[in-house]
Every structure is written in structure tokens, then in C-alpha cells.
Amino acid sequence: MHSQAEANLSALIESTDDPIWSVDPDNRLTAFNSALLRHFESVSRVRPALGMLPEELVVPEWAESMPPLYERARSQGSFRTEFLLADGRMLELSFNPILVEGKATGVSVFGNDITNRKIVEERLAKAQQALLTSELRYRTAFQTSLDAININRMSDGAYVDCNQAFLDIVGYTREEVIGRTSLELKIWANPRDRQNLIEILREQSSCQDLEAQFRKKDGEVFWGQMSASIIEIDDVPCLLTITRDISRAKVAEEEIRNLAFFDHLTHLPNRRLVSERLRQILAACARSKLKGALLFIDLDDFKTLNDTLGHKTGDLLLQEVALRVAACVRDADTVARFGGDEFVVILEDLSESSEEAATHAKAAAEKILAAVCQPYMLAGRECLSTSSIGITVFGDREDNIDNILQQADIAMYQAKAVGRNAVRFFAPALQAAIHARASMEEDLRLATGTSQFQLYYQPQVESGTLIGAEALVRWLHPTRGFLPPGEFISLAEQTGLILPLGDWVLETACTQIARWARERETSHITVAVNISARQLRQPDFVEQVLRVLDRTGANARNLKLELTESMLVDNVEEVIAKMTALKAHGLSFSLDDFGTGYSSLSYLKRLPLDQLKIDRAFVRDMLVDVTSGAIAQTVISLSNAMGLQVIAEGVETEEQREFLAGLGCHAFQGYLFSRPLPLDKFQLLLPKLEGRAVAG
Predict the structure, then answer these.
(1) 362: burial class by Cβ within 10 Å (0-12, 13-18, 19+)?
(2) What pLDDT shows up at residue 601?
(3) Of the four listed, 136, 396, 565, 570, which is most buried by Cβ atoms within 10 Å?
(4) 463 and 370, same domain (yes or no)
């Protein structure tokens, strides 16, 4: 067994590729494996043999280095060292003393060729050094760049790193920046710009030359040009941004733009910018369907003033006229000097109706006429001037810039032809419509406070039972007969006549509520009255309603005020306060035309509403249009979720009623049950409503 173990050990030693040998106390070879022969083939002309001394191998470094190493192993014990051969190979040698009765006699050596490992280590060291050099270069470039460089985490936007240029530009210290976000520091003058950047990066992973405004610590705003890309730092997605301060370039750009697009005397837009603005407005008109108008203004007898008082006085007049015209229109409108003594005003977003747009334009033109003809004090002298104004309304697809300017110019010359200091429209038909509208306004003014108005009532039913009625005003015009609200309510709103008319409607409806309350059969009827935006904005609106209730003796619980969505856009807090005050007295509120305008759940849930109305437009189309049906379903679901009643208006067929009932809506208003009727006919209808008879 012992000899077998020795044989196995000898075979194991012989099978390894690593050189192994041993020496006696005189450093002569006592044993070695064949791997030693292979390792010394390229560096020794003599093959190793038992009994050889190191110097006999004819390997100079071997003869010089080995004896001290053998002696070290005998005296100090095992150790490892690296040994370089003449052919460039590197061996790792392990020296171990051979102990006999505790005394070191020979030494065994185990070799390992580590040449390849050393090459890899050397390459790795060089790569690490190159990386350190690259990082040093990056850090130097990062810190010495004149552009602001930032690194932010994508997850929360927090600053991970920033360079000194960024700190110098924004005025923060490094401690104030790192760990905080740009939103916390309010770096972005417009946070929407940051959102635009994020959206671009999500699509493209990089962004070049995005221009935006940024805010410094002291509040000063500056222009920056930013490039950005997504990088990873320690497997964390980050945003690398480089921003250059381009404020000076922007100032220069603005100066160039002013020279190109603005009149140097009045600082108004010039002819070139008028064409550009018209191009933009025509595109907007095509999308919004809203009409615009162009006013062409020419000063009367300006040449005479210029020739008699001099060009300097003429320039002063032009500057003053520019200020007066600009003061007569909205901030969103465009006032331009077209050349010489000609000015142009572009009015946009007026109305979908050409007639209403023309009315707005005429009002603006008359305001300008009145302003221009006021006396001027120029260089110590009082001067007078008037103007002639031509108007064209635009917004149809076939309109183009040249035609619009030409039409307004023609209309301006028509204004001069009738004696100057006048306004004329290009379209004769539109001119006639303006006159007709002015006549209607005068008729409406005269009709207010007379018996020309009448309330009609349209029943509201639920499960075949009358639950209320909507009061709808009609105008018995002396020459045009009965007019529905659509033909005069808008005009009443614009002229302010809606206030006395609205007071009359509310008073009449409350008077009828009080009368019905005295009869058991009609005491439950609730009357819905439409309230205009102008009424609701009156400071004493709540007091007005309460006075009418007190004066007529009407039960507030039988009065429902109907509001429209558009009334809730402005001053929603004021609207909520007024609604809450009236609701405390028992009144209820319905939101009319729900889903057609500006609804926002953020304020809808705060309004003290009692009812939502499904607009007739959805009811009309819901059997043929999936979207309309879905909207109706949404309104019903929303009403249920908010604990509100829901009623559908414009129900004209049994199929519509059944469809709505299937969705969960059981209160209706429309021609299926009755048209709006005058009081006497409405009262005759009351006994039939239990059977849901249709009345014409």
C-alpha cells in the first residue's frame, strides 16, 4: 500500500504542467518532473539532471538567484516569489523547506507560469490608469467649462452633481443645490419647459439646443440653450444637461427682430409683422371657427397738418394716435402702423357668427374714432385730427391676407367718401346686418319693462309624473311676432339688458310658484329658471333673489336656478359662495348643458348642486353615435356617484326615453311630453301628464 501511494503521488506530480523540483543541502537536484524540462527548453542548453547544481543549467539568472532563495527557505520557512526568465516568461515559485527530524535539509520548489496573468494584470493596470486619466480630464472639463453642467437623477430630478459655472450663473452654493430638485429651487421660469424636455428625452434619449428661460436665486430670469442626454451612473438613470447662457444673444436677436418687424417711430408692429400675424390668426380661425376682423385706419388731412406744422409735429401726432388706438382694444389684439398715416387693427376670437363679430368690430372702430378726434397738445400747440376706418370680417376658408387687406382698404375709402370721420364695412350685406342688429337692440331696450315678454313652461316628468317645469322667456315682437330666446338673449347679454329682463323672469316665475302653492294638485311643482352669467356676477345677486322670494311669497324649495358650465370658468369661488348662501335658504341648483363646455371635477365636486342636465345634443345623437351614448352614461354615473339628480333634456322619441331609462336616467324634458307652452295651455295639460300624453 505504501509503495502504491508513492506511485500515485509520483504520477500526480508528473501529470501537472507546473515545474516541480527539490534540492539537497548542497543545492543539487534530487527530484524533478518533466514539466521542468519543458520550461527550461527555451532558456537552457543543458537538460536538467539529478545531482546538478544551479550554475550547471547555464541559466545565468538561475545560478545567481537560486542559492539565496534555497537558503532563505531553510532558515525562514516557506515563501513565494516571482522569477523572470530570459525569454520573458514569469514564474511564480513556492519554496518550502524539507524537514528531517525537525531540521531543514533540502528544499522543494513548486513553479507556476503566471506570464498570461501578468499580461492581463498589466493591461488592467494600464486601463485603470487610462480611466483615471480620462476621469481626470472629464472632471477638469466639467469644472472648468464656461457652460453650466448638471447631473440629475431621472427618478426624482434631484441634483447629483453640478459644476462651478452653474453655481456662478444661478447664484446658489453647492450645498444649496445637491440633493434638491430644479422645481424646488424654481430654476425653470416656466415648469412646462422642463416637462417638454422630459417628453423629448423619453422619445429620443437626447435633446439638442432647447431654448428656455431659467430663474436665478435672486429672481432674475435669463435665457439658456440646453442640450441633454440620459446616462447611467452606478446603474442609476441620470440626466446630463449642458446649458449655455444666451441672454445677450437673445437681446441682440430681439433688437434685430424689432428692426425687422416694428416701426421705429411708434414701436408698433409694421407691415411685415401684420402679414405674419394675419397668417397665424387665419390658421387659428380655421381651427376654432371664430371670426376675426381687420380695421384699416387712415388719418384725415394728415398731409395738410404735416405740411403746415412740420414733420416733427406730424411724428408727434402719429405717436399719440398709436397710443390712443392701442388703448381702445384688448391686449390680445394687434395694433400696427402700416405706413405713413395708416394704422391697422386685427381683432381675433370674436364670434362664430359674422354678425356678432361685425358688431364687436364696429364697437371697437367707434371707440377708436372717438379717441382719435379728441384734441392733441403737440409741441405747445393744440391740434385736431379725425380718422376714417374700413372694416372687413374674416375667418372663412377662402380668405387670404391680400384679399383681407384690400377689402379693408376699399372700405376705408368708402368711409372717406361719405365725409370722413366715419366707419364702413366692406360687405354691404354685413353692413345691413349691423343696422338690423342695432335696430333689434333698440327694440329690445324699448321692450324691457313692457308686456312684450311672456313666460312659457315646459314640463319635467319622472316615471310619468310631473315633477316640475322650466320657465322659458318669449318675446312678442311688435313686427316679427314671437321670438325664441336664441334670437335675443345673446344680444341682451352683450348690452346688459339681460339684468332687467332676468329680474322680470325671476319675479314672474316666483309669482307663479306662489299661486301654484295654494292648490294641492300643483303645490309640488318646482320651477327652473335660467340665470345668466351677468346676473350671477352682480354683487347683490343673493339679496336680489331673496327679495323676490319675500315679495312674491314663493317657497324657496320650489325654485331651482339653472346655471351653465361657461358661467363657472371665472371666479368659481365667488359662484360657490353665492350658491351656498342661497342653498341655505332652500333653493336648489341645476347645471345645464352639462358635458358641453368647461366641466372640471376639481370644482364640480365643490359646487352645491342638486341636479345635472344631460345636454340635448347628446340625447339627439346617442342612438346613432356611440360617443354621445357613452357621454350620457358617464353623466348618469357621475350623478349617482355624487348623489345628484339627473335629467335629460331634448327627449323627443320613445326610443330616446327607453335608452336613457336603460342607462338609469328616469327624469325627462322634451317634445315627447310637451313643447314649451304659455301658462294657460300648460295648466290645461297638467291633468294629462299622469298618462304622459304628448301635447303639441
Answers:
(1) buried
(2) 63
(3) 565
(4) no
Q: Are residues 328 and 461 in the same domain?
A: no
Indicate whether 173 and 315 sit together in one domain.
Answer: no
Q: What is the mean pLDDT of residues 476-480?
A: 88
Distance separating alpha carbons of residues 403 and 560, to the nearest angstrom:
51
Please tell me the pTM assigned to this model.
0.47
The reply to whether 471 and 393 lie within a common domain is no
Distance between CA atoms of 227 and 208, rounded to whole angstroms? 4
- The label of the residue with cell 384688448 reads 330
CATH number where 207 lies: 3.30.450.20
Most confident range, picked from 44-53, 267-276, 517-526, 542-551: 542-551
For residue 282 the three cell numbers come to 387665419
Q: Is residue 687 included in any domain, yes or no?
A: yes
pLDDT tens digits for range 182-219: 888 888 888 888 888 888 888 887 888 888 999 999 98
Look up cell 514539466; give the residue: 35
Which residue in the block uniquely carries the three cell numbers 334670437? Answer: 487
Residue 133 pLDDT level (bands cut at 50, 70, 90): low
Is 136 a domain residue? no
Q: Which of 302, 314, 156, 318 is nearest to 237 (CA)?
A: 156
- Report pLDDT digits (tens) over 462-473: 988 899 999 999
Could you tell me if 306 and 185 lie in one domain? no
Q: How far apart are CA 536 and CA 502, in angstroms?
A: 10
Q: Angle formed by the axes of helices 354-372 and 428-447, to 10°? A: 90
DSSP notation for 574-633: HHHHHHHHHHTTT-EEEEEEETSS---HHHHTTS--SEEEE-HHHHHHTTT-HHHHHHHH
Lowest mean pLDDT among 82-91, 103-112, 672-681: 82-91
Q: Which tens digits make up the pLDDT trace of 266-295? A: 889 888 888 888 888 888 888 888 888 999
Report the first-to-last Cα separation within the chain, whole angstroms. Answer: 124
In a domain, 657, yes or no: yes
- Which range is most confident: 51-55, 123-127, 300-304, 316-320? 316-320
74 in a domain, yes or no?
yes
**Percentage of the chain exceeding pLDDT 90:** 28
Stated as kind and residue range, the H or E segment containing 67 is helix 60-76
Same domain, yes or no: 643 and 671? yes
* Residue 63 structural domain: 16-113
Residues 103, 149, single domain; the answer is no
| Strands 334-339 and 291-299, bridge-based pairing | unpaired
Degrees (nearest 5) of the Cα angle 222, 223, 229?
125
Answer with the one of 198, 217, 249 that is the final residue of a domain.
Answer: 249
